[in-house]
Every structure is written in structure tokens, then in C-alpha cells.
Fold this protein.
Amino acid sequence: MAWLEIVRTGPMTTLQDHGRPGYASIGVSESGAADRVAHDCANRLVGNYPDAATLEVTLGGLAVRADGAVSVAVSGARMPITVNSEPCSAYTMLHLHTGDLLELAYASEGLRSYLSVRGGFDVPAVMGSRSTDTLSWIGPDRVAEGDRLPVGKEAGEWPADEFVPPPATPEDPVVMRARPGPRDDWFTTASLAALFRETWRVSPDTNRIGARLEGPGPLHRSITDELPSEAMVAGALQVPPNGSPILFLTDHPVTGGYPVIAVVAEADLSVAAQLRPGHSVRFHREVSSSISM
């Protein structure tokens, strides 16, 4: 059996796969990789099934040592990568042998990177998933120094290519599509217009649960009644009493009591997962005038 030993974790490293959908009725969010596109790409590079568990590394700083011959790949945020202090490339397959030290420096662009190993990480599944939910802390424990993560068998055919072109650097401001609703009618016409007209900035208050956005001013409500708790989804733009919207990400609560003014397109959530504090955001209004949750 081969494994990877955690030498250094960086600010936060967790195990992630495609999450545990279908449990919202009992208060458990889907969770899973925040940037599903980068997660799947890392798995594809080593010939894994898409749902194989990877390491999600926030801001870099991870170091792992191989025990046994393993093939790995790194995708997502841009950062220097070395094997035994020799520079290597992301978005390509790397072959490690016993004792080899793979190090991810701190990210220069983006927020989250993904380390895959051919076969996936063979840790116990909780409710059908190896993802760590950082809101409820369901799933594997947060990765810690000294952990030995065994390599599993969730691999298929070897990929045809050992390299894929990395995605383009996100623009600043990045533009994400969003549809108004389901509670856009709880806000003034001017505030709804401002959501799509103004440029917003990601605050330091950001994690896998959500990202608080700062703008030129608060969004004002036209209805001030108390809203009964409603179901929440990843991409929901919930507006608390201070008027600063919160973009819910993969570990979002399953219900919330503040109105949701709009919902970001699911296809843009991988982009949202890579936004660092200080990055600018604009929302493009989709044609549909309302959305139900």
C-alpha cells in the first residue's frame, strides 16, 4: 500500500470529492470541492474517476512525502511547485517515489488548489462522501501534520495526455452571471439595480461557507418583515440586515432567514471559489427575471 504523509498543511487543507447531495432535508449540505472544475481536472490528469477524493489546499503551503510509487497532479490556484526542491509544473502528471517531497508554495493567483493521487485518497466515507464539511464538520477531520493518507483504487484508464492547458487568469473584476430572486421583491428597485450595476469587492470574511461582499453602500429592503427560514443553495446572494450581500459557497447552511436577492449561475461557482479577499466582482443579470428555490 502506498500513501502520502502530510509534512505541512498550509493555512487549511481538507479532503474533498463531489460531496453528499440529497441530505438537505436533515440539515446536511452537499459540501464537496469548492472549485469542482479544478478538482475534476486534477483527477482527470491521473486517470481517476471524477468523484475520487483530492486534497483541497487553501492559499498553498502544503508539503507531502511519498511512501511508495505514486502519480499525482496539482490544479487550481497558481503557485510554485517543487519535487525535492526542483521546480515542477501544475496541470501535469508528476511521478513520485518513496521519500520524494512535493511542496506547494503560497498562491500568487487564486485561492484553492487541488492535489490528486492516482487511485484517490482512501479515507472512510461519511454519508457516502469523503468531503470535509467545514460548517457541520461532518466527514474526515481537517488534514494535520503527520497524517498518512493511503492511496485508494478509484482509477480508470490512464489519460491520453499528461498535461492540460491551465485556465486563463481570472479578470479583475470577474463577471458572474446571476438571476434575480427568489426575494428580489423584498428590495428597493434602486438596490436591485445597484447589485447589477456596481462593482463589489470580496472582503477578508470569506471561507468555504461563503464570501461577504463589500460595495459602495448597503442594499436596502422595501419589505422589512421577518422572513421565515427558507432553503438555501450554493450561489445564493443572501442579504443580512447590514445590507452587505453574502455569496454562499459549497459549505453553506441548508436554510437561512435573510432574503436572497439573486442566485449566481452554478457554472460560475468554480470561479467564485477562487476569489481572494480584495478581488472585484460584477454581476451580469441573466434574461430570466425570477428564480425559485
